[in-house]
Design goal:
Blueprint (H helix, E strand, L loop, with lengths): L2 E7 L4 E6 L5 E7 L4 H4 L1 H17 L19 E8 L5 H15 L4 E3 L2 H4 L11 E7 L3 E8 L6 E8 L11 H22 L10 H10 L6 H7 L21 H6 L2 H9 L4 H20 L44 E6 L6 H13 L6 E4 L3 H15 L1
Parallel strand pairs: 1-4, 4-5, 6-9, 9-10
Antiparallel strand pairs: 1-2, 2-3, 6-7, 7-8
């Protein structure tokens, strides 16, 4: 059958989409998390198998196979494209490609999940490049040009995607981590300057976060953040705080909705400052992939980049006359924005405003809500053109 399969393997969920020869979407399915670095090979393959089987079972006639079980007994797919979070090296791609080919019955294109996000590049003739930026549970930024020799995309540069311990700027982990740090710093300042002169600081952000964990003291957040992960097979006792059953990284990322609500619903200044900082850090990363426009715009304020700590330590300063070789101009590119946080209009505006202040205004900005669908359509279009 002339079916095209695209799978978005994320840290929170897996989305599989099957397109027909004309690019129409025939079936889709959702599964559990499939970050390869977190799961390992066997658990990763199990998620892919179950999710794709669900999608196959929902195919309409005449595309419905006799069996939705994998591996298939006869060829089902002519192309398959997997964007996998946690796949960050050629070695990782080489490890998972053979078992995926055996499972799916077709040789798959395997890449980091940001590649799928850049699929809209193939839909527009007025742009030369794409910058794919993820602000979801985690964060990563990559840039691409159109591919050659049958490849959909040609990777150029990549920034970030270091995971919740080391980075994930602009994403949910970052927002949660910075919110905890902001509350702790506020308490530290008050302990030195406040007791004799003013009451302990209060904010909507503080109220929401303390209520979320069921505590009354900001410094109890230190215990919560650093408390060990729950055992793999663990049933909490009645009365045990709910957060003890949650992995440490999720304790931080689960705070992102509270930060957004405090900033954009309550108008809380501290929460808004947290999101300005995370938006600025993501803009720092995106800017590393961009070359200055010509002529260079007038500076609007000064910037001390949050990321990386010292760009001059590994790269010379780029100018319009001597740009870094793999950078692209925003004015000739599309920004493909993905992840739940990028889908929030006010947060996206913070990021775009940061970029515009540095002279980077993209020709197109597209929020890609369903990267697996965009990828499946791109596969079908590429097959028709070749």
């Amino acid at each position: 059958m002339s079916l095209h399969l695209c799978i978005d393997c994320g840290g929170s969920k897996t989305l599989a989409v099957i397109a027909g020869p004309d690019g129409s979407i025939l079936a889709r399915a959702a599964g559990g998390p499939s970050n390869f670095a977190y799961l390992g090979l066997s658990s990763f393959l199990a998620v892919i198998q179950s999710t794709v089987s669900i999608a196959l079972a929902s195919l309409p006639p005449p595309y419905a196979p006799a069996s939705a079980a994998l591996p298939p007994t006869s060829p089902l797919f002519v192309t398959a494209w997997l964007g996998v979070s946690g796949v960050d090296s050629d070695a990782a791609i080489a490890e998972i490609t053979p078992p995926l080919e055996q499972l799916l019955g077709v040789y798959p294109r395997v890449c980091n999940d940001t590649h799928l996000l850049a699929a809209p590049l193939g839909l527009y003739s007025d742009v030369d490049a794409a910058v794919a930026a993820v602000a979801g549970t985690g964060g990563i930024v990559s840039s691409f040009r159109r591919g050659t020799d049958g490849e959909l995309l040609a990777p150029l540069g990549r920034v970030g995607g270091w995971g919740w311990v080391l980075g994930d700027e602009g994403g949910g982990f970052h927002a949660g981590r910075e919110a905890v740090r902001a509350l702790l710093a506020e308490e530290d300042r008050w302990s030195v300057w406040g007791p004799a002169s003013k009451p302990r600081p209060q904010s909507a952000l503080k109220t929401r976060m303390l209520a979320h964990f069921g505590v009354t003291d900001v410094f109890e957040l230190l215990t919560i953040v650093h408390y060990p992960d729950p055992p793999a097979e663990h049933t909490p006792d009645e009365g045990t705080p709910a957060w003890k059953a949650v992995p440490r990284e999720k304790r931080l990322s689960s705070l992102a909705p509270l930060v957004f609500a405090a900033a954009f619903t309550d108008g809380d200044a501290l929460a808004l400052s947290v999101l300005r900082a995370t938006a600025r850090a993501l803009a720092d990363q995106i800017s590393l992939l961009l070359r200055p426009e010509e002529p260079a715009p007038a500076a609007n304020g000064s910037f001390a980049p949050l990321y990386p700590p010292d760009p001059s330590s590994f790269a010379p300063s780029a100018t319009p006359s001597s740009p870094a070789p793999l950078t692209v101009k925003a004015s000739n590119s599309i920004l493909c924005a993905g992840g739940s946080l990028f889908g929030v209009d006010l947060y996206r505006a913070l990021i775009l405003d940061e970029l515009a202040a540095r002279g980077h205004v993209f020709k197109r900005v597209e929020v890609v809500g369903d990267t697996a669908e965009a990828g499946a359509k791109a596969l079908a279009m590429s097959a028709r053109q070749n």
